[in-house]
Write a structure and sequence with these properties.
- The chain is mainly α and about 140 residues long.
- It contains 5 helices and no strands.
- Helix 1 runs antiparallel to helix 2, helix 1 runs parallel beside helix 3 and helix 3 packs antiparallel against helix 5.
- It is elongated and about 55 Å long.
């Protein structure tokens, strides 16, 4: 029964983290298009609150519950799909931190990228989510 509770909390944490990973780059698109100081300040505030208040805690909760699940099912660590999944989680964590650096660049008024860049940048977590879900459900390795 404990396993199912931890699994449910892990899934909720993932959903919250990905909500932020999908929305923050969309805010970057709008921020890069903004032309007045009021809009830029508003987007900086929204980005900071999303990154620090939702994405950071959700990422940590995802790690805590994920590690707990692995401790309850250590046999997963001998399976290839888990190694690929964990590699993708490391890449996603890097993406998360790149987003954090971009939040700071926008806050300092130092963004050099266009809204088109951020439209493409926004697709990275979609691809990682697709791969992770397939790995966890299908377990191809």
């Amino acid at each position: 029964m404990l396993y199912l509770w931890i699994k449910a909390l892990h899934i909720v944490s993932i959903v919250c983290w990905f909500a932020g990973l999908f929305y923050l780059p969309r805010l970057f698109v709008y921020h890069a298009q903004s032309e007045d100081a009021v809009s830029r300040d508003r987007f900086s505030l929204m980005e900071r609150k999303l990154y620090r208040g939702i994405m950071g805690p959700a990422m940590i909760a995802t790690f805590v519950f994920g590690i707990w699940l692995v401790m309850l099912s250590p046999g997963w660590m001998s399976q290839g799909w888990m190694h690929v999944k964990l590699t993708l989680v490391v890449l996603l964590t890097g993406y998360h931190h790149v987003c954090g650096a971009q939040v700071k660049r926008f806050a300092r008024g130092e963004n050099k990228r266009s809204h088109v860049f951020f439209r493409w940048f926004n697709e990275i977590p979609v691809l990682i989510l697709l791969a992770v879900v397939i790995l966890v459900v299908v377990k191809p390795f």
